[in-house]
């Protein structure tokens, strides 16, 4: 196990994500109330309960920090120097229909550096927690052991998020990338529909992850901040679909285990716009 100061932000993130994951695991399979958000999106009672468990940890450990939760919104000063970003159940639709492909994401953004300085993404059902202190990245197994995350494109598996909306269509469509002969020749598509797939890129279980998304897909995204931080700390190549840093470009996300894989996917992402 990696030894850390008990007060470290990374450990707080890990404990908070683990607390949320425990709730998600406990409530799995139950008949849960749904709360409609509009546009086909919804939360379940598990989303709300998991977020409360995460917030309990953060409030106790870092009472002065601001927090943005997917379900509860923003609390604390609007211009706070430290803000926690919480997605208590990424993959709600998966979860609601009995699929275990979900994640609990917690990340800390430091306004002075505009960086994610600590993050954790927990898989409630494997018992794994992927975490970073902003410098290195590890996965803590159910046995409590920490192993360093090592990206690899060897699987040739690429996760593509096919969920709407598609703000860059018709110039970019993930489904067209998946159908391109160059993609078929080198990769095999997967559709997980949860940001657990982003952590899998850092862990070498996926070669890449591709999603569309507008300018809202930034380092202040409750959905993606933790996964982006994990991948960057592990040494992955992380950009928007235009090749620019995620906080600067048009949006979207291409996370790849290495530059070669990223370059191929960047070319394919631009190809539909040329037609």
Briefly say what this structure is:
With 275 residues, the chain is of the alpha+beta class. The chain has 8 helices and 15 strands.
Structure write-up:
This protein has 275 residues and is of the alpha+beta class. It is built from 8 helices and 15 strands. The strands form 3 sheets. An 8-stranded mixed sheet has the order 4-3-5-6-7-8-9-10. A hairpin with a 4-residue loop joins strand 8 and strand 9. The N and C termini lie far apart (51 Å).
Spatial order of the strands forming the largest sheet: 4-3-5-6-7-8-9-10
Shape descriptor reads globular
* Helix content estimate: 25-40%
Summing up helix and strand content along with how strands pair, one would put the structural category as: alpha+beta
Quaternary structure classification: single chain
* Helix/strand order, N-terminal first: HEEHEEEHEEEEEEHHEHEHEEH
Task: Give the rounded overall mean pLDDT.
Answer: 90
Computed over alpha carbons, the radius of gyration is 18 Å
Low-confidence spans:
none
The number of helical segments is: 8
Spell out the blueprint of helices and strands.
Blueprint: H1 9-27, E1 34-38, E2 41-44, H2 45-61, E3 66-69, E4 73-75, E5 82-90, H3 92-96, E6 103-110, E7 115-122, E8 129-132, E9 137-140, E10 146-148, E11 157-160, H4 174-179, H5 181-186, E12 188-190, H6 196-202, E13 208-211, H7 225-234, E14 237-239, E15 253-256, H8 259-274
Parallel strand pairs: 3-5, 11-12, 11-13
Antiparallel strand pairs: 1-2, 3-4, 5-6, 6-7, 7-8, 8-9, 9-10, 13-15, 14-15
Helix pairs in contact: 1-2, 6-7
């Amino acid at each position: 196990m990696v030894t850390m100061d008990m007060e470290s932000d990374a450990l707080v993130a890990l404990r908070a994500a683990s607390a949320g994951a425990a709730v998600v695991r406990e409530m799995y399979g139950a008949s849960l109330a749904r709360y409609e958000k509009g546009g086909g999106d919804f939360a379940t009672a598990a989303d709300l309960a998991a977020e409360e468990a995460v917030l309990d940890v953060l409030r106790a450990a870092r009472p002065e920090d601001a927090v943005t939760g997917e379900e509860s919104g923003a609390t604390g000063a609007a211009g706070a120097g430290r803000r926690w970003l919480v997605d208590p159940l990424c993959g709600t639709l998966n979860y609601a229909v009995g699929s275990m492909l979900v994640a609990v994401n917690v990340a800390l953004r430091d306004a002075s550096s505009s960086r994610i300085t600590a993050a954790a993404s927990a898989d409630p059902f494997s018992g794994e927690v992927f975490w970073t202190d902003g410098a290195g990245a590890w996965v803590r197994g159910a046995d409590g052991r920490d192993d360093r995350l090592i990206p690899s494109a060897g699987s040739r598996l690429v996760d593509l998020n096919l969920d709407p909306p598609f703000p860059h269509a018709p110039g970019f469509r993930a489904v067209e990338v998946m159908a391109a002969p160059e993609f078929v020749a080198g990769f095999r598509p997967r559709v997980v529909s949860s940001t657990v797939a982003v952590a899998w890129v850092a862990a070498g279980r996926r070669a890449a992850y591709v999603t569309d998304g507008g300018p809202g897909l930034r380092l202040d995204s409750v959905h993606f901040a933790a996964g982006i931080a994990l991948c960057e700390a592990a040494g992955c190549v992380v950009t928007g679909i235009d090749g620019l840093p995620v906080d600067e470009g048009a949006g979207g996300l291409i996370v790849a285990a290495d530059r070669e894989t990223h370059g191929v996917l960047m070319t394919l992402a631009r190809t539909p716009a040329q037609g």
